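Final report, Chapter 2: Outcomes

The project's central promise was a pipeline that accepts a single protein chain and returns its three-dimensional structure in a standardized token representation, suitable for archiving and comparison. That pipeline is now operational. To close this chapter, we reproduce one record exactly as it appears in the project archive, with the input sequence first and the structure output second.
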Amino acid sequence: MRIALRPSGGRGDYELAGSYNRLHASDLLEKQFFFQITPALTIDGRSMAHRLHGKPRIRPVDGKHAYVIIAGVLLLPPPRRELQRTPDAPPQLRTGAYTVAGIDVAVLEDGRTTVTFAPKSVWARSRGGLLKIDYENRMAIITTLWSAAESLSSACGSLVKEHKESVFSGDHGRIAESSAAIQEFYQTTDDVVPLLLRDFGLPEGSSPAFTGISTLTAGFISEDDDSSPEESRRERTRKWRRQVDRGPGAREFSLRVRRAYDFRCTFSGERFPRFPTLDSAGVDGAHILPWSTHQLNSISNGLCLCKLCHWAFDNGLLRLDFDTPSREYILSIPQNVQDAAARARFDLQRFQRICGRIVQARLPRNQRLWPSPQGLLELNASI
């Protein structure tokens, strides 16, 4: 499904187009739009689609159009709305030199009066061609910048912190203003993200692909998606966990978690310490809630996991719950994973053997360092 720019008079108009699984754009008329910015943050889009002149036209309700919000969140230069006023040349991310021709979205929740969309791709178009911005890739970079700004007292660090606060506030005008303020600070009309990466001492962003921009535009032809909302939520969470940056304290966090658990895998109970003939330990300090969205490098937001269990946990193959009455942690394999594994003829026996109650001997001696029940609840709800 796509929020698409259509020719209409001079400027063009945005419509809800295509389908998502069995949902069609016409099924979502008169429902208030919400946008999932990250798996942990959803903001009110303050807009909805109405049937106007036979088309599902999108109209803001005391807010801004989706293309303005998403461009501001992703720190894209302000686009134009009129395609005919863009250059007759390959598109560039430059103020006023492109339009947002479409925002591909997944439908995560379809309620009686509301619908929650997750942006997937942003299509930048000029009269000379198309560019694709991978939303999740670009958003992971934005959250990395937010994280790095927390330890900076510079002017650009303060502007990035204000940008983060504006996004979390959900105030459309504030989002657009904070994005524009960063561009103004650098006195540029081009993409500001490579400049921020350079000044923050983060990996060089001179490559467009690094900043989420691609010239591979074959997917622009289709506005339909056969995925189900449940599949999209799971895939979005998995992709997000793979892409987000853990922040500069990742190594310290991992070491503290491994030490607290005495280098023992929480799930399997096996101990994999580092010793002189090994280059590294066989366990990781795994985040429960991603650093990029929660900035939690506390031991209680971590699990000590062997490489295989870390992979299984990050991909939703293994699920950890906290049982409040018994104050015990329960490891399980979700039913949908069991069904999918059976279809793929994937043997789950290794994982089935370790499911059940986690014995306290595998947990830190200090109970305050045990995995956060609230963190597990929030993670499982997002998956």
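Archive annotation: The mean pLDDT is 87.
This record, like all others produced under the grant, will remain available to the consortium after the project formally closes.
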